[in-house]
Amino acid sequence: MTVDVSKYKENRTQSVTSEKKRANWTKRILIGVMLLYLSLFLLVPIVFIFVKAFEQGAAVYFAAITESDALSAIKLTLLVTVITVPLNTIFGVAAAWCITKFQFRGKQLLLSLIELPFAVSPVIAGLVFVLFFSPRGVLGPWLTDWGIKVIFSVPGIIIATMFVTLPFVARELIPVMQAQGSAEEEAAVSLGANGWQMFFRVTLPTIKWGLLYGMILCNARAIGEFGAVSVVSGRIRGMTNTMPLHVEILYNEYQFSAAFAVASLMSLLALLTLIVKSWIEWRTEKEQQA
Predict the structure, then answer these.
(1) pLDDT digits (tens, 9 = 90+) for 160-188
(2) For residue 218, how many other CB atoms are within 10 A of its CB?
(3) pTM (2 decimals)?
(4) How far is CA 95 from the centre of its chain?
(5) Distance CA 131, CA 156 (A)
(6) Which of 78, 84, 217, 263 could bridge to 168 as Cys pair (CB 3.0-4.6 Å)?
(7) From residue 157, how far is each of 89, 116, 136, 138, 232 by CA, in Å?
(8) In terms of C-beta density within 10 A (0-12 exposed, 13-18 middle, 19 or more buried), how is residue 228 classed?
């Protein structure tokens, strides 16, 4: 009987050991596949962008990014981002607060509308804005009478960018605020806090990392948006070209070094966004563990 038990334990140990070995090999294979995939589709293209950008030397590189049309595209991109991100942040906070703290008719409809930019192609969204705001569109004649130009100008680019970046802040905040509940807010109200005090002293500290995360994603999409902006901007060189549009124009004109130079600036902004995003995730995880 003792021999049988010892053999059973020995077989069991061997079985567990073999399972661990198979698990380790599976883990290594999956990690290898992941690293290969990331290298081919992320690291190699980024390295290639910078190699091509500096292919003709630093002088050509800096001349390309300081050229007047390039500076105009950079300034316009930053302007659109500076306007779009705060406005969508305000909307995202208000929408998340409304959805998570109140019950009302049309709540599911509001959720669906927030998700709409993910379901509609940016090019289609741009065409819709053209139909509405162009001089021959639905609202175009009325806007023209008031001297307001939307399509083929900066306001149209801002509207298109706001549409495609609208869901990011709300999508990050809604799960956070649902998990948070409303007990702390109710306690604050019972102690005499008004709405603003409750938001800044109770709600905001608990959602700050989710809010920053949503703003980072919104910022990244605003900088790189191409489809909707390409339709409503008119691609007027030096006036309504954002950085992605300027890169396309340079590439189509066979100015490859200049195109990759501007693209490298966008890549740097993307890498900076990734670093900030990773830091926010680390801080969020650290606070949750604490």
Answers:
(1) 999 999 999 999 999 888 887 777 777 77
(2) 29
(3) 0.82
(4) 18
(5) 12
(6) 217
(7) 18, 19, 18, 18, 6
(8) buried
